[in-house]
Amino acid sequence: MAPRTLSLGKMALLVLFSLVLTLALGMGLPEGLSFFARLFGFTESSVTYGIVLLYLVYVLYVAVPALPRGTVPVEGKHVLITGCDTGFGFALAKHLHAIGFTVFAGCLLKDKGGDGATELKSMQSDRMKVLQLNVTSDEEVAQAVEFVKKNLKEPERGLWGVVNNAGVSGFGDIEFASLDNYKELADVNLWGTVRVTKAFLPLIRRAKGRVVNIASMLGRMAVPSRSCYSISKYGVEAFSDCLRQEMYRWGVKVAVIEPSNFVAATGILTRERVEIQADKLWKEASEIVQEDYGKDYFAHQVVLMKSFLNSGLKDMSLVLNDITDALSSKFPYTRYNPSDTYWWVRLILTTHLPAAIADWIYIH
Ligand SMILES: NC(=O)c1ccc[n+]([C@@H]2O[C@H](COP(=O)([O-])OP(=O)(O)OC[C@H]3O[C@@H](n4cnc5c(N)ncnc54)[C@H](OP(=O)(O)O)[C@@H]3O)[C@@H](O)[C@H]2O)c1
Ligand SMILES: *[C@@H]1O[C@H](CO)[C@@H](O)[C@H](O)[C@H]1NC(C)=O
């Protein structure tokens, strides 16, 4: 076995980096502050106050809610949202409409007379346009582009925003989940997002508009039994990062929304869906997996998943406000974390601590 060694060059770089950082923070900071104190005629002792003040500014920066950054005018701006049948998409369509946007509400079940599409249509507003849109279908996405082009007041000025919201969820340990489980979730969550974004980008670039992708906190960190979902959402994050970088030169801004647990507020994972999935997972697992893990372990996982269903935030307004900010702020953020405190802390710790320590805190 090859010994675990660090190349000499890499080691030297790491040591050098630590030295520079130590010198900069340990000596550079007081030195620099002394310099400014002398420059402006303050006493040397004010340097201590300076350090305390810097620290205070930092703490305030972390603690104070986002400063207002100005908004773009909303009138005459059109936004397409996918997955408007239920949940965030349905609520967002109404919310954006209420604040003055013209909404193209893509619904999976419009042609089948789904409740969400029917209710949005019954608003009978010029600014609420409901269309059939299954994000896994090339044909329906192409038809959606045509529909949007035809219904834009000034097509040459493009489409202001796309919100990739359509999504499906699931659970199940890796040894229970079939490859088809992985593919089904990725088809909607990841390839659906890629397909819709690519189709609408020419219109979005015309408007120097916005792409808003609904990923998840599970697009930044993984938890046991959610690998199918997490993979698809990590993919959305990677896609959004590339897109953001490629779009700078076009003036298009890309934002990712990473909600924590809002399961209780939406239709993404109902008790019924969990039960259907659980049945399927157990039946399709190999004999050896059933035997090794055991029915008790599996039943416990299902109970855990069901308890998760009742644990989330019931008010979606955090999510709706963040999506609205991403669409209408002059300076939208790259990432938004609408979340409760528990998951916010867990996300920060998991993405900043060494993995072994984060696992020790949360998983063992
Ligand atoms: N709720 C949460 O806790 C949470 C947390 C983080 C991220 N998210 C993300 O938020 C987004 C919205 O989900 P939600 O929580 O509002 O759940 P939801 O109520 O289930 O909404 C998702 C909608 O997308 C639709 N959809 C499914 N497959 C589609 C397809 N192929 N084409 C078009 N639409 C399709 C669903 O229709 P059907 O119901 O008929 O399948 C549903 O109406 C998803 O991307 C989800 O991953 C949710
Ligand atoms: C969405 O489109 C896919 C691929 O074309 C198809 O397999 C699926 O049945 C469609 N879903 C609905 C609800 O129409």
TrEMBL record:
Coiled-coil stretches noted in the UniProt entry, renumbered to this chain: none
PROSITE patterns in the cross-refs: ADH_SHORT
SUPFAM superfamilies: NAD(P)-binding Rossmann-fold domains
Pfam families given in the database record: adh_short (PF00106)
One annotated GO molecular function: oxidoreductase activity
GO BP field: steroid metabolic process
Keywords for this protein: Membrane, Oxidoreductase, Transmembrane, Transmembrane helix
Residues annotated as transmembrane: 47-67
Stated family: Belongs to the short-chain dehydrogenases/reductases (SDR) family.
Protein name, as recorded: LOW QUALITY PROTEIN: D-beta-hydroxybutyrate dehydrogenase, mitochondrial-like
Organism: Microcaecilia unicolor
